[in-house]
Design goal:
- The protein has seven helices and 43 strands.
- The chain has about 575 residues and is mainly β.
- Among the domains are: about 120 residues, Ribonuclease Inhibitor (Leucine-rich repeat, LRR (right-handed beta-alpha superhelix), Alpha-Beta Horseshoe); about 110 residues, Ribonuclease Inhibitor (Leucine-rich repeat, LRR (right-handed beta-alpha superhelix)), CATH 3.80.10.10.
- It has a 21-stranded mixed sheet, with no helix packed on it.
- The longest helix has 11 residues.
- The radius of gyration is 32 Å and the shape is elongated.
- It starts with a helix and ends with a strand.
Length: about 575
């Protein structure tokens, strides 16, 4: 029986033999060095055939060749585990193997010491494992290596200066680790380097100069602790497509012409730094730019009319700066623009009517500026618009009557302006609306009685601090998703909105300082979700149901009523 059992085990686990092709022999040794749970994940069968190993999962051989040499080993996401250093040496012995992809597994331990000796490899991907410790300098021994991906591990220590020995290196990813210290100047001096990813580490110091013959296409540096200026040598990277240095401590005034030679640039992100002064004029000549993200700096000055040259722009985010002056009329040329974030600046003047030509716009966020004038009716041509947030400006006049043309609108907020007039009846047709925030204006008149009836997703209705009159619309919770129902400080009349208070999703309910009267009904349905209930400053009489009085977090806002 014991002999039968041993035979069964030997049948399950292929034992390498000298009669097998050299490539198959080394691959099986790699497999057999793994923990038992990982061996079962690699369905590689023992063979004496010269070509069978080319059909093993994850194994690719050179095409159009008769000697069946292994070219690639791609085991991404197989769920393999173990100490990689105990197994990797077998892969180095696979003749002619040029690509190893072990990303998305559970390998632990340190970077294999033998990696630098695998001189035939040109592409190594160990991304998304659990490798830890420092990067050994010998990983970067001179060789044929073109691409090395060590991202999303637990590596620590400094980037070895020996990285500069990889003169052919084109791709290097060390992102999402815990690397510290400065970027060695030898790294930026690799003239062949095209893609560099250092995102989300603990790197610091100033950025080194780039070589005069810079080949970089993509430079990702965000979420580190770099300080000092952008190196002027960035202008040497004439083919650069992406530059992301967001969430660092970079600062100072950026040289006006520093981006003059980067005419291929498509994405530029310098947000969450300490840059100041005017936005360099050379930014506005980057005609291929699709993404310009500079939020949370201290940039000052005006947005120039030259912005019209960025006609490929999709995302513009200049929020949380000190920009002044009007929004330039030439934004009307940005026909591809989808995102416009200019909030928390000191912009003034009216909204340019030409914004209606930007028919790709999805988000317009202009809150906390000094924008004045009317909302131009041309804005109603933006049928893709989902977010229109104009909070805390000095906008006057009525809500455009054509607002029902904004068929995609989800959030409409004009909180804290000087707007007048009535709510247009067409607003009730905005079926995708989730937030309607009109508070702290000078709006008046009655609310459309069917407000909410055709808006199933409405979860915030905030009309406080206006001069609205008439009865409270009873259909506001028709979609049973209403969270916040805030109508404070108006002139509403009529009785208590029983249909609203029965809304099971309601969390915040406030009607204070109106002219409502009558009694509060005893049967108010299931109001167990309410956390805030305020009806002070009305003319209600009688008693308040115990359910409401004890469920509300702020009982002092119930007024002087008896509890039933």
């Amino acid at each position: 029986m014991l002999l039968l059992y041993l035979g069964y085990i030997l049948f399950l686990v292929p034992i390498p033999s000298a009669s097998q092709p050299p490539a198959a022999l080394q691959l099986l040794q790699f497999r057999n060095s793994l923990p038992e749970t990982s061996k079962s994940l690699l369905q590689w069968n023992q063979t004496t055939s010269s070509s069978a190993h080319c059909s093993w999962p994850g194994v690719s051989c050179y095409s159009n060749e008769t000697d069946f040499r292994v070219e690639k080993l791609e085991l991404k996401g197989y769920g393999l585990s173990g100490v990689l250093e105990d197994s990797y040496s077998f892969l180095c012995e696979v003749p002619h193997l040029v690509l190893v992809d072990l990303s998305g597994n559970n390998f632990g331990g340190s970077i294999p010491a033998v990696l630098g000796n695998c001189s035939q490899l040109i592409d190594v991907n160990l991304n998304s494992n659990h490798l830890s410790g420092p990067i050994p300098p010998y990983v970067f021994k001179p060789g044929k290596l073109l691409a090395l991906n060590l991202g999303s591990n637990k590596l620590s220590g400094m980037i070895p200066a020996e990285v500069g020995q990889c003169k052919r290196l084109e791709f290097l990813s060390l992102e999402k680790n815990s690397l510290s210290g400065q970027i060695p100047s030898q790294l930026f001096s690799i003239q062949s380097l095209r893609y560099l990813y250092l995102t989300l580490n603990k790197l610091n110091g100033t950025l080194p100069d780039l070589p005069s013959r810079c080949s970089l296409l993509e430079l990702q540096l965000p979420e580190n602790s770099f300080h000092g200026p952008l190196p002027s040598s960035i202008s040497n990277c004439h083919d650069l497509l992406v530059l992301n240095a967001s969430s660092n401590h970079l600062g100072g005034v950026i040289e006006q012409d520093i981006f003059k030679g980067l005419m291929q640039l498509e994405r530029l992100s310098l947000d969450h730094n300490k840059f100041e002064g005017q936005i360099p004029m050379s930014f506005w000549s980057l005609r291929n730019l699709t993404r310009l993200v500079l939020w949370n700096n201290s940039f000052s000055g005006r947005i120039p009319e030259d912005i019209r040259q960025l006609d490929q722009l999709v995302r513009l985010d200049l929020s949380i700066n000190n920009l002044t002056g009007p929004i330039p009329a030439s934004v009307s040329y940005l026909r591809n623009l989808e995102i416009m974030y200019l909030d928390k600046n000191k912009l003034s003047g009216p909204l340019p009517p030409g914004i209606g030509n930007c028919t790709s716009l999805v988000d317009i966020i202009l809150r906390e500026n000094n924008i004045s004038g009317f909302i131009p009716p041309e804005i109603c041509g933006l049928r893709n618009l989902e977010y229109l947030m104009l909070n805390h400006n000095q906008i006057e006049g009525p809500i455009p009557h054509c607002i029902d043309s904004l068929i995609s609108l989800q959030v409409f907020s004009i909180l804290g302006n000087r707007m007048t007039g009535r709510i247009p009846p067409g607003i009730t047709k905005l079926a995708n609306l989730t937030q309607l925030i009109l508070s702290l204006n000078k709006l008046e008149g009655e609310i459309p009685s069917d407000l909410g009836k055709n808006i199933p997703g409405l979860f915030i209705l905030d009309l406080k601090g206006n001069q609205f009159t008439g009865e409270i619309p009873s259909a506001a919770c028709s979609g049973s998703r209403l969270w916040h129902f805030i109508l404070d400080d108006n002139k509403f009349t009529g009785g208590f909105p029983t249909e609203i208070i029965k809304c099971k999703s309601l969390i915040r309910f406030s009607l204070k300082n109106n002219r409502l009267q009558g009694s509060i009904p005893n049967d108010m349905g299931n109001s167990s979700s309410i956390e805030y209930f305020n009806i002070r400053g009305n003319m209600f009489e009688g008693t308040i149901p115990m359910r409401i009085s004890f469920q509300a977090q702020y009982q002092r806002n119930l007024g002087s009523f008896k509890i039933l």
